[in-house]
Design a protein that fits this description.
It is a single chain. By secondary structure, the chain is α/β, with parallel strands linked by helices. The chain contains twelve helices and 16 strands. The strands form three sheets. Strands 3, 5, 6, 7, 8, 15 and 16 form a seven-stranded mixed sheet that branches. Helix 12 links the parallel strand 15 and strand 16. Helix 5 crosses helix 11, helix 6 packs parallel to helix 7 and helix 8 packs parallel to helix 9. The longest helix is centred in the C-terminal third of the chain and has 13 residues. It starts with a strand and ends with a strand. The model has no long low-confidence stretch (mean pLDDT 97).
Length: 338
Amino acid sequence: MRGAVIHAPGDVRLESLGDPKLLHPTDAIIRTAVTCVCGSDLWPYRGAEPIGDPHPMGHEYVGFVEEVGSEVTAVRPGQFVIGSFATSDNTCANCKNGFQSNCLHREFMSTCQADYVRIPNAQGTLVATDQVPREELWPSLLAVSDVMGTGWWAADAAEVKPGSTAVVVGDGAVGLCAVIAAKEMGAERIIAMSRHASRQKLAREFGATDIVTERGDEGAARIKELTGGIGADSVLECVGTAQSMSQALHSARPGGNVGFVGVPHDVAFDGQELFFSHVGLRGGPALVRRYLPDLIDRVQTGAIDPGKVFDLTLPLQQVAEGYQAMDERRSIKTLLKP
């Protein structure tokens, strides 16, 4: 099969790889319908994370079941399935508490920009649709496997409530999906922090009521100005840099909450500052598996359309261009068709 392999910063290649095999009775093999490049893939691509030896890339996927292990009964060959970037057995104590992305048997997916993928913990990870969805829904269902689920977790962790004010820090695919989530959870005012016209337009389409272009301390000051000097009820941090996390904390009101879902890089908080802020912090890898049934239903009924974050579609053989386009901010998110 073909699969994307990263060799060095800025060097992603489509190569011929061995077909995946069932390694455990809890595995499944799927044929990808569509896959994509994630904003978090850009960390190693830009040299911000070590790469080590060349290795496959990709953690977002939807597709058709090809083969299942002997202990997998929840899905069967031929079904269209959606899964999470973090696999889970869905039976351990952490899974039962709704934190499947911290499953005691968790494995992170990392080979999905490919024709075929082995899914560990398939019994608890994969959710099948009742029938094969219309192809025009595939991008939105793909978004559910990560960025929409992550945006939903940001809103959930920040405790967005009906009638509240929510701020979204970050205008990438996760941030834009977080706008959808805040809207669906009933936020009355949604302030999207963005400097890019095309992303501002999509944020407004998804439900943003205000746009703030300032960043850092200036951005937080602007949020305070828009909220009567107090700050927002909920802040959804969808970037993961030191600046974005500081901006999020300083944008929340006392008693407010920050949901942080951007993978932190060089982020540190001063304990005294956090103590006296009275702001709650919760985040981590998104609880995609918890939300999958609900989000799949919202996509299939037309309630949400997160697939609009894909503004560039390429064949899988042009995966390197997909990375480059996102790195250069010519694309919000690149869809790849095997």
